[in-house]
Amino acid sequence: MTRCEEGQICLYDGHNLTGSNLQLQYGVDISNLGWAWNDRASSVWNRGKGAVCIYTDADYRGYHYTIMPGEKQELLFLFENAVSSLEYGGCGAP
């Protein structure tokens, strides 16, 4: 498992939190992960203080899924190699 600091959201390009990872500071919404990480993640670890919502399309669109604090999530089916944006506070947060 690649390192993920407390307070961060980490995306991994391998299953079971393996491979290269992208560490994002909790609390900053990302409307587009950019060319390097768009449609690349296969697992996610939320070490932030609140929920985070991942989306299959940029600008918080497409299929979405909430990952709770402390949760390690395998991305399967619609979400594997499909994450393009993420939003803090959970899906549909005000």
CATH H-level superfamily: Crystallins
Summing up helix and strand content along with how strands pair, one would put the structural category as mainly beta
- Please report the distance between the alpha carbons of the first and last residues: 33 Å
> SSE order, as H and E?
EEEEEEE
Helix-residue proportion: under 10%
Number of domains: 1
Low-confidence stretches: none
Oligomer: single chain
Hey, roughly how much beta strand do the residues contain?
35-45%
- As for the CATH topology, it is Gamma-B Crystallin, domain 1
Number of helices: 0
Please tell me the CATH architecture by its name. Answer: Sandwich
Largest sheet: 4 strands, antiparallel
Q: Mean of residue pLDDT?
A: 91
Question: What Rg is obtained from the alpha carbons, in whole angstroms?
Answer: 11 Å
Number of strands: 7
Question: How would you describe this protein?
Answer:
By secondary structure, this protein is mostly beta strands. The chain has one domain: Crystallins (Gamma-B Crystallin, domain 1). It contains no helices and seven strands. The strands form two sheets. The protein has a four-stranded antiparallel β-sheet, with no helix packed on it. β1 (8-12) and β2 (21-25) form a beta hairpin. The N and C termini lie far apart (33 Å).
Provide a concise account of the structure shown.
By secondary structure, the chain is mostly beta strands. 0% of the residues lie in helices and 36% in strands. The chain has no helices and seven strands.
